[in-house]
Amino acid sequence: GDDLRRVHWPSSARHGDLQVRQFRPPRHGRLSVIIDTRPPGDQTSMLDVTTSIAGSIAAAVLAAGDAIRIETTDGRSTPLMLGRSHLDDMLEFLALLDGGSSRINPEVPVGSGTVVAVSADPRVATDIAARQTLGRRLRARVVVTVDAANWAPAGSTSTAGSHRTGDWIHLTGAGQLASHWRLDSLIKAGA
Description:
Elements: H1 9-15, E1 30-35, H2 44-63, E2 67-72, E3 81-82, H3 87-95, E4 114-119, H4 122-126, H5 128-137, E5 142-146, E6 163-165, E7 168-171, H6 177-180, H7 183-190
Parallel strand pairs: 1-2, 1-4, 4-5, 5-7
Antiparallel strand pairs: 2-3, 6-7
Helix pairs in contact: 2-3
């Protein structure tokens, strides 16, 4: 019953038996964004900023055809979602997030694949050891920090103070993520 076009003739000759090629569908990259909801990241203004960043990442990942899960450090999570049709569900989850726990749930992160952590905790932004500890604990390939004290509102074009250094992206205002974000290399590295 196999189609003769799928027979790999050189392998069949070597093994003395028909060898049929089996094609696997392409594997999509998987990314988990973990929002640090520990205080002060649970404050309404900072939670709005971190969820906005997570939403921007989710939109880019879904548009690229990859799978994403949003998690919080206190254990709330979306299922793994794939395709633009899930963007509304993802954004609804983010819109309904409220304050979190002061501890990281031991079950986080839930899934596999590449992990990106988003935190508004000033210690994580300013203390290398705290940032590395959070990154290791969450198995994060990249930690995105938000400068809560100096956050520039939407519409501001300044990128002053924002930067990317290896596995760390530091943001000081709305609209800065795009200039530091490299989705393709991030997804491929963790897929």
